[in-house]
Amino acid sequence: MRFMFVGDSMTIGRAGDYTWRYRMWQHLDAAFGGPFQIVGPRCELYDTAADAPSSHEYADPAFPEQARRHLAGWGEGWQHMAPLIGPAVAAAEADVLLVSLGLIDLGFYTAADETAANARRFIAAARRARPGIRMVLLPVIPNVRAESDAPFAAQVALFNELLAKAVADLSTPASPVLLAARPASYEIHHDTYDGTHPNASGEHRLAGEFAAVLHQAWGIGGPYRPAL
Questions:
Q1: For residue 227, what pLDDT is reported?
Q2: pLDDT tens digits, residue range 8-53?
Q3: Phi first, then psi: what are they for 216, rounded to 5°?
């Protein structure tokens, strides 16, 4: 089974990070119970000094090179990934997409309705490339900006409603789309290093939410147990 991580800065991570992708790979490695692959066209972290996705300095240098693969980008959202996902899925023959997108769209590019339309474009493009593909989508977790910017907070809430509707409308038995829950205990002042990007505890909580959906809905893996 081939998994692809798709996301923005919370998913690509920066130089020196573990990333929630790493935590998810650890979980699958321990709980999947058979062969699997992490696939995608990219493998780098974002280098803040170079302002480019050019770093390979993961916090754990033993993180296998092939398991570092992804389709994530600092500053990239649904509108950026919608035209990329079809070719990426086709080339990698991905079976399951684990997607965390939307915050950067709402913060800098598009309002909730257009962001939701781009999410629908993304789902359609992935299916054209792989008709039986499965997807798990994470709703947007409000960041520190939402605490002081009420219109932005309202857009996040509206988008999450529209994303849930898109999942209900578009999920099919042949190509199911599931909506993960925001981790119940995720707290931006504890689980991020800057009010947006996950620290170690946040990485575990994000990976744990994806792991829970995979296990409960499709019997993939098992309950999430953070590696020490």
A1: 76
A2: 999 999 999 999 999 999 999 999 988 999 999 999 999 999 999 9
A3: -70, -35
In a domain, 27, yes or no: yes
Count up the domains in the chain and report the number: 1
Whether 225 is in a domain gets the answer no
DSSP state of 107: I
* Residue 214, domain member (yes or no): yes
pTM of the model: 0.97
Q: Is 130 helix (H, G, I), strand (E, B) or coil?
A: coil
Give the CA distances from residue 78 to residues 34, 83, 161, 176, in Å, rounded to whole numbers and listed in that order.
Answer: 32, 9, 16, 19
How far, in Å, CA of 154 to CA of 161, rounded? 11
Q: Which of 124, 119, 121 is nearest to 100 (CA)?
A: 119
- For the CA atoms of 40, 43, 46, 49, the dihedral, rounded to the nearest 10 degrees, stands at -150
Confidence class of residue 183 from pLDDT cuts 50, 70 and 90? confident
Contact status, residue 14 vs residue 81, Cβ threshold 8 Å: no
- Domain assignment present for 226: no
pLDDT reported for residue 156: 98
Please report which helix (H) or strand (E) contains residue 179, including its range: strand 177-179
